[in-house]
Amino acid sequence: MKKRRQFFKTAIGAGVATLIPSTIFANSHEKKSPNTILKPKALKKGDTIGLVAPGYAIKPEVLIEAKETLEKMGFIPYHTDRIHGNHGYFSNTDAERVADLNEMFANKKIDGILCARGGYGCTRIMHLIDYELIKKNPKAIIGFSDITALLNGIYQETGLFTFHGPVGSTLNDPYSIEHLLNVVMKSKKLPPIINNVQITDLEEYGKPEYDRYTINPGVVTGKLVGGSLTLVNALIGTPHEIDFTDAIVFLEDIEEAPYRIDRMLTQLMQGPTFNKAAGIALGVFKGCDSVPDPKSFTLKEVILDRIKPLGIPAVYGMTFGHIENNFTLPIGINAKLDTNKMTLELLEKAVR
Prior knowledge:
Elements: H1 2-12, H2 14-17, E1 48-52, H3 60-72, E2 76-78, H4 94-106, E3 112-115, H5 131-136, E4 140-143, H6 148-158, E5 162-164, H7 174-185, E6 193-194, H8 202-205, E7 213-216, E8 219-228, H9 229-234, E9 248-252, H10 258-269, E10 279-284, H11 299-307, E11 314-321, E12 329-331, E13 334-338, E14 343-346
């Protein structure tokens, strides 16, 4: 209880003011776009991967498993003691979590950064990240879910391609591992990403949220932006609100009732740029159609009702999200979406 009281005392006390610059709320509706593009160095076997937990705490046994997986992939895992700190539901304090992230970019011995897990907490440290440091030390940073905020924010502030892919706690199936390695290790153009993967859990994949369907037909090109629908919405009204103009927007989510998906899509649609997107690629919204109430709309009904009238080429059921077979999408990269064939092609190499 003492720890909990101290947490809330800190949150409302003068101490927290030192973490919030006076400019954090200034120009909060001014969307940022990078002036230059940075590509991280291609990773290779023998490289050191820094593990960070910028949101929720990670269980010791899950951290061990993530390190073992990285070693099997040919990398050397590294983390500081900050990853072990439990601060309420966070892995550590805001100051310590952002210090860990900044240190991984500053450390010349670290070649790439893998977020150990998502959860919640990244939006609390966005204003504390040393973006100038990242510009001078561009590295591949990988994660998804809550990490959506970091990925889009870093890209906006620095122009660095970031990677929406598995976190350490979900790096546990061959497809996700293979595709991640293809994107971050090969400095060459890759073949189109096709929704043709081996299904291991027939019962899970038989659920309606795994349906695949074209919402609006079309073939479009644009830069990739997006991630977790919840986090994309959480960035609205902040300095890191996403500009969707002429972009291919990719979205996914987990365990949100259809009415919540409806609300979040509606909020995006009522914003200034979502309707200007070139295309929309929706992943698998796992657990978002499990509502026993017969009076509820289904997930598919909500998506068709919200997205189809936009007339923007769109598809549902692409292989990414809180699922196995989670392919890696570089944020900021030029891509081609074919909603008829349900393919996504990266038009340039993601690393140098």
